[in-house]
Amino acid sequence: MKKIVFLGGSAQQVIAIETAKKIGYYTILCDFLTDNPGQFAADKFYLVSTTDKEAVLKVAEKEKIDGIVAYASDPAAPTAAYVAEKLGLYTNPYLSVELLCNKDKFRKFLSDNGFNTPVSEGYGNIEKAVSDIGRFRFPVIVKPVDSSGSKGVTVLRGPEGLREAMEFAFSYSRCKRVIIEEFIEKAHPYLIGGDIFVWDGKVIVWGLMNCHRDDRVNALVPVGKSYPPELKDSDLDAVKRTIQLMIDKLHIKSGAMNVELVVDKEGRVWPIDIGPRNGGNMIPDLLSLIFGADVVEMTVRAAMGEVPVLDMKAPVPYYATHNLHSDKNGIFKRVVYSDKIRPYIVREKIYKTAGETVEYFDNASKAVGIVFLKFDSPEVMHDILSDINSHITIETEPMIRQTCGIMNICGLVR
């Protein structure tokens, strides 16, 4: 029986383990969290950090594996490529994967290879950034070079708040490095993002979608996707050419890539992030509905060096997801949908149970759940999604704690 290692066993990663078992592979999980749910799905579990390359390599050598996957995980992607390369397994180049997982190196790659890239600079300390800030044109984005899900990201309209933004970004950086880059104004209502899938160096699935945000909580954090992308044909062609050219120059052979790009008013394409892994927030599940192919299975098979192309149909339009989220801290009660949106719900995944804590949605890890939607027309999809907060309510109760004999309602009494 062929063996495959998975790096990370969170609730969103379990589906990859279960898919591999369905195919007939022996599954091995590495995760440093003792309470990860993936350990109960995998055939064997090792309490090992997914970012510890040498520790994972020892596990892989001991188990004599045939493939390794970092499903929906940026931090673990370089580890997977490193281990596969060391063992002579099917993989994308380690140096390319590492580059894509580091915003510093990615921006340099873009600049060196003639792609559009904003003025940017990486910093290892706050004082150097403060002294340099005059060279940037505002607005700017301050973010860790090695995080995903909009963790630690701030947009500044002026130099005020730079120190706080840098401290916030450093708190989310594993390598303790932060990048400042100029903000690119988009021509279309949405950033373009989603997943593509590569086989034999060519993109075979173009899962490009509209990236939705919620200005109530954080305009930088994705709250959902919708398909098809609202781009002119010429702009969509330019996006595809840009992505394929990056794939060529990085010598990417196979697998899912999570992408985010901006098209500006001059029709120029600006790559923002390219992650060498499946997207989070159940993007592969959404693409499976749109394209009629099991993208998770494609990912698993590609990691084993097997041809991943399954039967795919013409893409079905007017699908969307919405990440259920709260605009305040509290105790979760339930999710309430309006009568208007309910007919369009095709699937719901709730991460919380009644009585559990929910947090203000300032990064993707704080989602309460996700809902999948299928609409009859672009008009109906736009009508619902443009006002979605009036159709979905996350009911919570205040968090109450006992302090010195006095009951305090968190967030209301300080």
Question: What would your notes on this structure say?
Answer:
The chain is α+β, with helices and mostly antiparallel strands and 414 residues long. The chain contains eleven helices and 21 strands. 41% of the residues are buried.
Give the end-to-end Cα distance, rounded to a whole number of Å.
Answer: 59 Å
Total number of strands? 21
The overall pLDDT, averaged over residues, is: 92
Beta-strand residue fraction = 25-35%
- Percent of residues in helices comes to 25-40%
* SS class: alpha+beta
Strand sequence of the main sheet, in spatial order? 13-12-9-10-11-14-18-16
Compute the number of helices: 11
Radius of gyration over all CA atoms, rounded = 21 Å
The outline comes out as globular
For the largest beta-sheet, the strand count, sense and barrel status come to: 8 strands, antiparallel
Low-confidence stretches: 402-414
List keywords for this structure.
disordered C terminus, alpha+beta, 414 residues, single chain, 26% helix
Q: How are the elements arranged and paired?
A:
Layout: E1 3-7, H1 14-23, E2 26-31, E3 44-47, H2 53-63, E4 67-69, H3 77-87, H4 94-100, H5 103-112, E5 120-123, H6 126-132, E6 140-144, E7 154-156, H7 162-170, E8 178-182, E9 191-199, E10 202-214, E11 218-227, H8 233-250, E12 254-263, E13 269-275, H9 283-291, H10 295-303, E14 319-324, E15 330-337, E16 345-350, E17 357-358, E18 369-374, H11 378-385, E19 392-397, E20 400-403, E21 406-409
Parallel strand pairs: 1-2, 1-4, 2-3
Antiparallel strand pairs: 5-8, 6-7, 6-8, 9-10, 9-12, 10-11, 11-14, 12-13, 14-18, 15-17, 15-19, 16-18, 20-21
